[in-house]
TrEMBL record:
Family: Belongs to the LptD family.
Species in which this protein is naturally found: Acidithiobacillus ferriphilus
InterPro entries xrefs: LipoPS_assembly_LptD, LptD, LptD_C
Keyword field contains Mitochondrion: no
Domain of life: Bacteria
Pfam families: LptD (PF04453)
The protein's name in its UniProt record: LPS-assembly protein LptD
Residues covered by the LptD C-terminal domain: 288-650
UniProt subcellular location: Cell outer membrane
Cited function: Involved in the assembly of lipopolysaccharide (LPS) at the surface of the outer membrane.
Primary location recorded for the protein, binned into one broad class: membrane
Record carries keyword Disulfide bond: no
PANTHER family: LPS-ASSEMBLY PROTEIN, LPS-ASSEMBLY PROTEIN LPTD
């Protein structure tokens, strides 16, 4: 392969000689003859538009057959021809260029020993051309070539690549290459893909766009324990500048043929995408398997908006079986194969300076047997508002109406009204914020046993939150901030076992949550009792450059009431104090980050929860993560993950997650990648324990031929999930 033509487009120097000085621009043969008499050595002729000619010598000017030699440059329209000699035949409207011929047109540069060009028709024949597509850096050579019209070329016995050097990493060798610059499209016939000098694939016909264009995309390949060998052949439909569709035929050796369609649209005020999958007569389940996913957002104007996110699968293991290979599972929460349920929602919203309101629908589909999905909310209506009162006061209003639906258990409606009146005094040394709040809920319950059909709950809440700011400026320019924080909260004790649990739960608590009014529960079905003070201490240290060196916080709640309600709504005894909550972050160097959060039982002095992560990010494509996760009675896991260049253009990556309690690995991923400049490749081998105990092994392989296409299965979504901070973006 000859070197690419990087400098072809540059104009030659134009030497001046006595008697042949400058150039003349004329538009007809009579003016050309006049120019010949006045300025010997310079020739000008006319095609459809004017022609400008630069040369050292010209012979036969005015005869209809002239020859220019020595640093010849011909300019016509938006094109240039450079050569050692150029002969022009007016009758044929033809120029024949010989010796170091270079032709420059928009986006394409060609070099050849000889070329024949018909100016008006924009046609020509080129002998042994070398060419360069400047925008794509695609280049190659051919036995001969033809210009079929403006922007249309045919190259015979030709090659194409985006790689450089005497032996390019990859090339397309074709009996014929058709280049259409008008449609930004290249098609080839009788094509062999040559990698490192070895033919690896033959195609009778192949096409690829220089820009977005309808046509076949590169196939995807892979393998997994559940599905067997995988081959996907996609076809891309360029419907409009703001709309496209990709139809993929996926073959799974253990399951059959799946049709997958992805439709995308984009308008100034709305956008969305629609996924649909269909696997008829699945060889594993002997059923028709399908899935659908639609996301849509729309600005309706005047503060109104709409969105929809609908997801449904006909087969509960669809995500675990196909999420990693068919690309469908990327739209679902929970990761590939590990979503216990999928959510569908939609709503109409209004937002202004003071008001935020909406009407939404939300439903769930269970994927894991014997698990319980959240209640569907069909519908949820809400209206929130916020107004300033005086200089430092404010009024905050939250209201909602929910209809909770489920296939079993109680269902019904709930009306929540939560007004809050507050005042915030803030100065550089600290702040003080009292609040008065009212929780009011009204329930209408169907299938109500053992609950009453109608139930009301009214609970007032008072709180006072404050803090101090202690700032110290070091002699080296560093800054230390220490903030003692407190919040006193009072909510009267009231049994709530007459209220069903629609959306209440007990979350994992952390340091910020101890300063919430309803710190024990999420949702509105349970409001904790409170006669308590939350105490906390938070500190931050900034280096002289402003970088945060460390941040840490510790806090606890002290209870003056000895009774509390549990999740069932019953009144139960309560300890004098909550767990201790810790969180911290330490970055001794800009590329090292240490994170920690924990809970310690104040009575038993034992560890309830601990999360640790040490991350080292010394540079691009370099990351090491050490993780440890512990929750008493539930989780005890450790993990190591990372990505690192190992030799020149090679990169290795891996992730190993281990269940310490069960003494077995949960997830194992190993991969290797290579970036060759004009091409790249990476392969990953993956093992995962899915929810329900099912195991899946998969292989992900992707080869990227830059400027042409990619082959295989893109796996960056999987990589970012299991190796935080890593990527193989080629």
């Amino acid at each position: 392969m000859k070197s690419p033509l990087h400098n072809i487009g540059k104009s030659r120097s134009r030497p001046t000689r006595p008697g042949s000085g400058s150039h003349v621009l004329l538009s007809g043969i009579r003016l050309a003859l006049l120019g010949a008499l006045l300025t010997p050595g310079i020739a000008v002729a006319a095609a459809k538009g004017p022609i400008t000619l630069y040369a050292d010598q010209v012979h036969g000017l005015g005869s209809g057959h002239w020859t220019a030699s020595g640093h010849v440059e011909v300019l016509y329209g938006d094109r240039r021809v450079y050569a050692d000699t150029v002969h022009y035949d007016q009758a044929l409207d033809e120029i024949i260029a010989n010796g170091h011929v270079r032709m420059v047109s928009p986006g394409l540069v060609t070099a050849a020993p000889k070329a024949t060009i018909h100016l008006r028709a924009n046609e020509g024949v080129i002998v042994h051309p070398r060419y360069l597509l400047e925008a794509q850096q695609g280049h190659g050579h051919a036995e001969n070539g033809k210009e079929l019209g403006k922007g249309r070329y045919q190259l015979n016995e030709a090659c194409y690549t985006t790689c450089h050097g005497e032996k390019p990493a990859w090339q397309l060798w074709s009996g014929r290459i058709d280049l259409n610059q008008n449609d930004n499209y290249i098609s080839t016939t009788n094509t062999t893909v040559d990698v490192f000098g070895l033919p690896i694939f033959w195609m009778p016909y192949f096409s690829f766009p220089l820009k977005r264009h309808s046509g076949f995309l590169a196939p995807g390949v892979g393998s997994s324990t559940i599905n067997g060998f995988y081959l996907g052949i996609p076809y891309y439909f360029d419907i409009a500048h703001n709309m496209d569709d990709t139809l993929t035929v996926n073959y799974f050796s253990k399951r059959g043929v799946m049709l997958q369609n992805e439709f995308r649209y984009l308008e100034p005020n709305y956008s969305g995408k629609l996924y649909m999958d269909l696997l008829p007569s699945d060889q594993l389940t002997h059923k028709n398997i399908w899935a659908i996913s639609w996301q849509h957002t729309q600005n309706l104007g005047d503060g109104f908006s709409f969105n929809a996110d609908y997801n449904h699968v006909s087969y509960k293991n669809f995500l675990s079986d196909f999420g990693g290979t068919a690309n469908f599972g990327s739209s679902f929460v929970g990761g590939i194969g590990n979503a216990p349920y999928i959510t569908s929602s939609g709503g109409l919203y209004y937002n202004s300076t003071h008001i935020n309101a909406g009407a939404t629908l939300q439903a769930y589909q269970m994927l894991v047997p014997y698990s319980v999905a959240p209640y569907s909310q069909l519908p949820r209506l809400f209206a929130d508002a916020y107004w300033r009162v005086g200089r430092n006061g404010y009024f905050d209003w939250h209201s909602s109406f929910n209809y909770f639906s489920a296939s079993a258990g109680p269902v019904g409606q709930r009306l929540d009204l939560t007004p809050t009146l507050g005042w915030r005094f803030s100065r550089g040394w600290g702040f003080l914020e009292p609040q008065a709040r009212l929780y009011y809920s009204h329930y209408q319950i169907q299938r109500n046993l053992p609950y009453a059909r109608a139930t009301n709950r009214t609970l007032p809440a008072l709180s006072l939150k404050g803090g101090l700011n202690f700032v110290r400026y070091g002699s080296d320019g560093s800054t230390t901030l220490l903030q003692p924080l407190f919040k006193y909260t009072y909510i009267p004790l009231q049994a709530q076992n007459g209220i069903p649990i629609f959306d209440a739960s007990q979350p994992y608590q952390n340091f910020p949550m101890i300063f919430e009014n309803n710190s024990l529960y999420t949702g509105s079905d349970r409001i904790n009792a409170a006669n308590q003070v939350a105490l906390g201490l938070r500190g931050t240290w900034l280096t002289p450059s402003g970088r945060q060196l460390w941040q840490a916080a510790v806090g606890q709640i002290r209870y003056f009431n000895r009774r509390q309600i549990n999740l069932a709504g019953d009144i139960v005894p309560q300890n004098q104090q909550s767990n201790y909550f810790f969180e911290g972050q330490y970055a001794p160097l800009p590329d090292i980050n240490l994170l920690a959060s924990s809970q310690v039982n104040a009575q038993q002095r034992n560890l309830q929860r601990l999360n640790l992560r040490a991350q080292w990010l010394p540079g691009p494509q370099r990351v090491i993560n050490l993780d440890y996760r512990y929750t008493r009675g539930f989780v005890h896991q450790a993990g190591l993950s990372g990505a690192w260049p190992i030799y020149k253009r090679w990169q290795a990556l891996g992730s190993y997650q281990y269940d310490i309690t069960d003494h077995k690995p949960l997830e194992e991923l190993a991969g290797i990648g290579y970036d060759g400049g004009c091409w790249a490749a990476h392969m990953m081998v993956y093992h995962q324990i899915l929810l329900g105990g099912q195991s899946n092994n998969a292989i992900y392989l992707e080869i990227v031929l830059r400027g042409l296409t990619s082959l295989g299965n893109a796996s960056n979504a999987l990589l970012s999930q299991y190796v935080p901070g890593a990527s193989m973006e080629f």
